[in-house]
Design a protein that fits this description.
By secondary structure, this protein is of the alpha/beta class. The protein folds into two domains: 238 residues, Type I PLP-dependent aspartate aminotransferase-like (Major domain) (Aspartate Aminotransferase, domain 2, 3-Layer(aba) Sandwich), CATH 3.40.640.10; 128 residues, Aspartate Aminotransferase, domain 1 (Alpha-Beta Complex), CATH 3.90.1150. The protein has 14 helices and 17 strands. It has a seven-stranded mixed sheet with strand order 4-12-11-10-9-5-6, sandwiched between helices. A four-stranded antiparallel sheet has the order 13-14-17-16. It has a two-stranded parallel ribbon with strand order 1-15. A hairpin with a 2-residue loop joins strand 2 and strand 3. Helix 6 packs parallel to helix 7. The two termini are 40 Å apart. The mean pLDDT is 95.
Length: 437
C-alpha cells in the first residue's frame, strides 16, 4: 500500500503530465493564431464545427447505416448522417456518398477494397512526381497487395503525360486506374486517360483529397463527369471541415453502391468518429452557402501568391502554365536532393511561417528535398485577400533571400496575422476566432 507521501508525489507527477499536455496544446494554438499556417493539407474549422467536434458524440458508436445499426441510441445520429449523405450528394453532384471515412487515406483503402483484389494491377502517379503515399507500395496500394505501375510524367506541365499514360494503361490493363496527387497544381487531363481505362475494363478512381473543396466549389475540375467511377477525398483541406474523408461515386448501380458501403463498414471502419461525421455535415451545410466563394478566393490567392513569389526572385514551378490552378504553390530552393527545402522550411518556422518541405520532380530523398509545397487555404479562411499575398511573399523573401533574422521577421508576421483572426465562409454570427485555444 502506497504511503501518504508516495501518493502525494504520484498525484503531483500525474498532474504535471496533464499540465504539460495542456501547455503544449495551448502553445500549438498560439503558434497558428499568431503565425501563417501554409501547409497545403491543413485547414481550420468553423465555430459551429468546433462545437460539434467537442460534443458528446465524440464517445459514441453507430456501426452500420442509418436505420440499420448494431447499437441502440442512434436515432439522433441517424438524422445527422442521413442529412449528411443527402448534402454530400448535392454538394458533389454524386448519386452515391458515404461520409463515414475517418481520413482520405482510409477512403482510399476502402475504395481499393471495393474495386480490386490482392494481386490485381493498378496504375497511379508515383510519389516522386507528386502522388500520395497511399497510392504507393508503402501505403494503401501495398496494404491491398496491388501490383503498381506509375504513369510517365510531364514535368513542365506537372501532370501525367497523357499519350504515354494512355499507352501504359492499354499495355498494363489495370484493374484500377487511379488519378489525383498530393502535389496538385493543375486539373488532371482525365477524359482521354479515363477512356483508355474503360477500353481495358479498368475502374477509374480519382483521389481529390487536396482539391475536394475546389471541385465542389466549381473551381478545379469535375472528375465524376470526366470519367471517374469513384472519387475519394479528405474533409479538412480545401474542403473546410473536420478531420475525415469522403467516398463518392458517379454510379447509380445499387449493387456497386452496396460494395462501396460494405468496403467502408465493416471493411475499414468500425466506429467512425461520430463527432467528426457530424462536423462534416455542418461543414457541408456551410459549404452550400459559402463554398463557391471560398473556392474562388483560394484559387485567386494562390495565383497571386505564386506571382508575388516569382516577382521577389523565387524559383516558382510551372511558370509556363501560370504557376497554379489550385491552392498549392511549389518553390525550388536549391539543387536536387540537397535538403534546401528542409532548410527553408526550418527558417520559415523560426519566423512564424509554417510550411512543409516537399520533393519536386527529380528529387529522390524524401527527407532532404529541394522544394516547398505551400497552401493558401487557411490564410483565405481568415480573410487574406489576393492583394495581401505580396505582403506574405515579402516575408518569405526577407527570410530566405535577404537573410534577415527570422526572429525579427516574426514580429511582422505576428502583426500581419493579428488583423486576420475571424474565421470566414461559415455561419459565424458572433465572429468567434478560428483559434479557440
Amino acid at each position: 500500500m502506497a504511503q501518504p507521501q508516495e501518493a502525494e508525489d504520484t498525484t503531483a507527477l500525474n498532474r504535471g503530465y496533464a499540465e504539460t499536455v495542456m501547455q503544449a496544446v495551448r502553445a500549438s494554438g498560439q503558434l497558428y493564431a499568431n503565425g501563417l499556417g501554409m501547409i497545403a493539407s491543413e485547414n481550420i474549422v468553423s465555430p459551429l464545427v468546433q462545437d460539434i467536434v467537442r460534443s458528446d458524440l465524440h464517445g459514441r458508436y453507430a456501426e452500420g447505416l442509418p436505420g440499420k445499426r448494431y447499437y441502440q441510441g442512434c436515432q439522433d445520429f441517424d438524422t445527422i448522417e442521413s442529412l449528411g449523405i443527402s448534402l454530400a450528394q448535392e454538394v458533389f453532384q454524386a448519386p452515391f456518398a458515404n461520409i463515414q471515412s475517418i481520413s482520405g487515406t482510409v477512403s482510399n483503402i476502402g475504395a481499393l477494397k471495393a474495386l480490386a483484389k490482392p494481386g490485381d494491377r493498378i496504375t497511379a502517379v508515383s510519389t516522386a512526381d507528386g502522388g500520395h503515399i497511399s497510392h504507393a507500395r508503402m501505403g494503401a496500394v501495398g496494404l491491398r497487395d496491388l501490383n503498381l505501375t506509375t504513369y510517365p510524367w510531364d514535368e513542365e506541365r506537372m501532370e501525367p503525360d497523357v499519350e504515354a499514360s494512355c499507352a501504359v494503361i492499354r499495355e498494363v490493363q489495370p484493374k484500377v486506374a487511379l488519378f489525383g496527387q498530393s502535389v496538385f497544381l493543375f486539373p488532371t487531363p482525365m477524359k482521354e486517360m479515363a477512356d483508355a481505362a474503360k477500353e481495358v475494363g479498368a475502374a477509374v478512381m480519382y483521389d481529390g483529397a487536396h482539391v475536394l473543396g475546389l471541385i465542389a466549389g466549381g473551381q478545379f475540375q469535375d472528375p465524376l463527369r470526366e470519367g471517374a467511377d469513384v472519387m475519394t477525398g479528405s474533409s479538412h483541406k480545401t474542403f473546410p471541415g473536420p478531420q475525415g474523408g469522403f467516398l463518392l461515386s458517379s454510379s447509380e448501380d445499387e449493387a456497386f453502391q452496396k460494395r462501396l458501403n460494405n468496403a467502408m463498414f465493416p471493411g475499414v471502419c468500425s466506429s467512425y468518429h461520430l463527432h467528426h461525421v457530424a462536423g462534416k455535415v455542418m461543414a457541408l451545410a456551410e459549404f452550400k452557402e459559402f463554398g463557391a466563394a471560398y473556392a474562388k478566393d483560394i484559387v485567386a490567392n494562390a495565383r497571386a501568391f505564386a506571382e508575388a513569389l516569382a516577382a521577389e526572385g523565387f524559383d516558382v514551378l510551372a511558370e509556363s502554365r501560370g504557376y497554379t490552378a489550385s491552392h498549392q504553390v511549389l518553390t525550388r530552393h536549391g539543387d536536387l536532393d540537397s535538403g534546401a527545402g528542409a532548410k527553408a522550411a526550418a527558417l520559415l518556422e523560426e519566423a512564424g511561417i509554417i510550411t512543409n518541405m516537399n520533393m519536386l520532380p527529380g528529387d529522390t530523398k524524401a527527407m532532404s528535398p529541394s522544394g516547398l509545397r505551400l497552401g493558401v487555404q487557411e490564410l483565405t479562411r481568415v480573410g487574406f485577400t489576393a492583394d495581401e499575398m505580396s505582403d506574405v511573399a515579402s516575408l518569405y523573401a526577407r527570410v530566405l533571400l535577404r537573410g534577415e533574422d527570422p526572429n525579427s521577421v516574426k514580429t511582422d508576421v505576428h502583426e500581419l496575422k493579428s488583423t486576420h483572426q475571424i474565421i470566414r465562409y461559415c455561419f459565424n454570427d458572433d465572429e468567434r476566432t478560428g483559434y479557440p485555444l
